[in-house]
Specification:
The protein has 443 residues and is an alpha+beta fold. The protein has helices at 3-33, 36-44, 48-57, 60-95, 101-134, 136-142, 144-171, 185-197, 203-215, 220-223, 239-249, 275-278, 304-314, 334-342, 372-379, 392-400; strands at residues 225-226, 233-234, 253-257, 264-269, 297-299, 318-322, 328-333, 356-360, 363-367, 411-414, 417-425, 428-436. The strands form 3 sheets. Strands 8-9-12-11-10 form a 5-stranded antiparallel sheet, covered by helices on one side. The radius of gyration is 34 Å and the shape is elongated.
């Protein structure tokens, strides 16, 4: 065989070995990423395909060991073929530059290892991991027969290695199953769905459990009362004005600002006002400064679970949310945080006011402060540039390009959704009628 033919054949062999190595690494990733509990639940529900897969996965240790063993053989094979075929020619090229022959062989070997490592990393690890992670279930389903054959061929060597591994693990007091008890979020959600289906968990309990998982993915700014909705008093407010405000708003804690809402200096508890009546002065000795408590400031981007822990630790019931410029973005209370998990909590002063009220199947009355993603979910749509807005009212103002007058009732259509402003108050859209346009199919 001529030298050029030998090099070509060797190159093809290396490409084939790399492809096999990549295929095995795809399988390895797929077997690692596949949700075994999901397979188990589906099998218990009577799905025949999942039952077969569940039985197959009972031997997952030996299956993945066989895959790793095959991948190691590929690496060794690629190294042997590369060294035998390319070491001498590359060494001669390097020696042609005046390098000592032994040094040239060394540098040729290093060069071959680096190039081979790059090939295996790219086509045998990085790409296969992405493919295996994305299509893990399909890959495992479609290769059950292939991996069973590979496992059977390599089983003698694999069994010896597994036996030695378990013996060494036992000697080192390492439990090979210690990580098997870890349960993922996805698995818990699957269990919750199954529990709801068989009646063990009701809808409210399911929502609460799902809210717990969402809790640590939410930032404070998403749940805070916006600065425009903050009920606060100035430092120079009179007792009479404060009493009127308390009777109107029914809050138990009220922030206090100095010059404006961006200069909150603390808050007071409504119950502390009683001391000005209990001293016999009937409120004449009132001094707001005497009952102001130190404010607790938190950044807009803080995670809600972290804030919950901090407020518990510091025994704080109200936090002032500040933006990146140091201005007041809003306020958040312990009640707001708890409501993120258990849903709305209504006391004797709260009037239940639905953000979204159904008129008919395709028409709803929606408050302007409703989160835009809730409206998108309700109508199964995604509005263009929706990431620029938090509320549906803000989105409509953006679409109109202006703030409507209070007497205006503008109407616009975005895609197959029609919006009509029903109420405007103080430059804010308060209420919107939203109708989804449904095309009637010709019979």
């Amino acid at each position: 065989m001529r030298e050029d033919q030998r090099l070509s054949v060797s190159g093809i062999i290396i490409i084939v070995i790399t492809a096999v190595y990549g295929f095995l690494k795809v399988l390895e990733t797929a077997y690692i990423e596949i949700n075994i509990n999901k397979i188990k639940f589906a099998a218990e529900d009577g799905d025949e395909r999942y039952s077969v897969l569940h039985e197959h996965l009972k031997k997952i240790d030996s299956l993945t060991a066989s895959i790793d063993f095959g991948a190691i053989l590929c690496c060794i094979g690629a190294t042997i073929v590369s060294a035998k075929t390319f070491l001498q020619p590359i060494a001669e090229i390097i020696a042609g530059f005046g390098v000592d022959k032994s040094a040239a062989v060394f540098f040729a070997g290093v060069l071959i290892m680096v190039v081979l490592a790059m090939l295996l990393l790219l086509f045998g690890i990085l790409l296969p991991q992405k493919i295996g992670t994305r299509y893990c279930e399909n890959m495992v389903f479609s290769t059950i027969k292939h991996i069973t054959i590979i496992s059977a061929v390599l089983s003698p060597a694999v069994m010896v290695c597994l036996g030695l591994s378990h013996a060494l693990g036992k000697a080192l007091d390492i439990n090979p199953r210690e990580e098997d008890d870890n349960v993922t979020e996805e698995e818990i959600r699957i269990l919750v769905d199954a529990g709801e289906d068989n009646g063990a968990i009701d809808e409210n309990e399911k929502e609460m459990i799902n809210n717990i998982f969402e809790f640590n993915n939410t930032i404070v700014g998403d749940i805070a009362t916006h600065r425009t909705d903050i009920v606060a008093v100035g430092l120079n407010a009179t007792l009479e004005d404060i009493i009127i405000l308390i009777n109107e708003e029914k809050f138990s804690r009220i922030p206090v600002y100095d010059e404006n809402i961006d200069d909150i200096i603390g808050f007071f508890r409504v119950r502390d006002l009683l001391k000005f009546y209990g001293d016999g002065s009937n409120g004449k000795n009132f001094c707001l400064n005497n009952i102001i408590l130190e404010p607790y400031f938190v950044p807009f981007s803080k995670k809600t679970d972290e804030l919950f822990e901090d407020m518990q630790k510091n025994k704080v019931q109200m936090a002032i949310v500040v933006d990146e410029y140091g201005g007041t973005a809003g306020i958040v209370t312990m009640e707001d945080l708890i409501e993120e998990i258990v849903g709305n909590i209504f006391d004797e002063y709260d009037v239940e006011d639905e953000e979204i009220r159904e008129i008919d199947e395709n028409t709803f009355l929606v408050k302007g402060t409703t989160q835009i993603d809730e409206v998108e979910e309700l109508f199964d749509v995604e509005f263009k540039n929706h990431d620029y807005y938090d509320t549906i009212g803000g989105f409509l103002i953006g679409q109109l390009g202006r703030i409507p007058d209070e007497k205006e009732r503008p109407k616009i259509t975005v895609g197959n959704v029609e919006f009509k402003v029903e109420k405007i108050d103080e430059k804010r859209i308060e209420l919107i009628k939203i109708h989804k346009i449904v095309e009637l199919k010709a019979e």
